[in-house]
Design a protein that fits this description.
By secondary structure, the chain is mainly α. The protein is 54% helix and 4% strand.
């Protein structure tokens, strides 16, 4: 069963569970143009609506529960952050096409729980034998190691194809890790939330 509510103390908050809401929360979390407090409040509002935003004493716990929900109850692996091969927003056309081809589900006309959406994403066809949805073909190309290709023409051809499907928004992020200043900024933000 997929979660529909979170609970803080004795108060239950309904989660806006549609996958589009979670994708919007991820977009907000990655938006460097807004401050940390505004970002946290936007995520709380997007995920829990008026109930969440009107209970400031629960912000810290709601943000913690929001993160757990958005990660589908799993722990995040810091190494996987550096190896992103897909973006929900940039790749939505590929995602929609893959859901249609593999599951005959038109994502434009359906609401779907974020966790179910993730489970189906993980089950999309991905075979080295050629039976592979378009999204996974793109992801495989993005992560393909060209160093093993000896033929220069073939290597250049694959490098050109990789360049065409490269994720624009992670191009620079993948090249640098979070600085100590950025890590300290995040800690200051959490401490500020605790004091409010």
């Amino acid at each position: 069963m997929y979660p529909e509510y979170v609970e803080v103390e004795d108060k239950r908050y309904k989660i806006n569970t549609d996958f589009r809401v979670a994708i919007e929360c991820n977009r907000i979390a990655e938006d460097d143009s807004i401050g940390n407090l505004e970002r946290a409040m936007a995520i709380i509002y997007t995920l829990f609506g008026d109930e969440g935003i009107n209970t400031p004493e629960h912000y810290e716990k709601l943000l913690e529960l929001a993160q757990k929900y958005l990660l589908c109850g799993k722990e995040i692996d810091n190494d996987s952050i550096e190896k992103l091969d897909m973006d929900f927003i940039e790749d939505m056309d590929y995602i929609e096409a893959s859901f249609m081809s593999d599951y005959h589900i038109d994502l434009t006309n359906i609401e779907m729980h974020w966790w179910k959406f993730n489970n189906l994403m993980n089950g999309l066809s991905n075979s080295e034998m050629g039976n592979c949805c378009v999204l996974n073909r793109i992801r495989n190309l993005r992560t393909f190691d060209v160093s093993e290709i000896k033929d220069k023409k073939e290597r250049d051809k694959i490098l050109k194809a990789k360049k065409q499907v490269e994720l624009k928004k992670y191009k620079e992020k993948n090249k640098k890790k979070a600085t100590e200043k950025e890590k300290q900024s995040a800690m200051n933000f959490l401490n500020k939330l605790r004091k409010e």
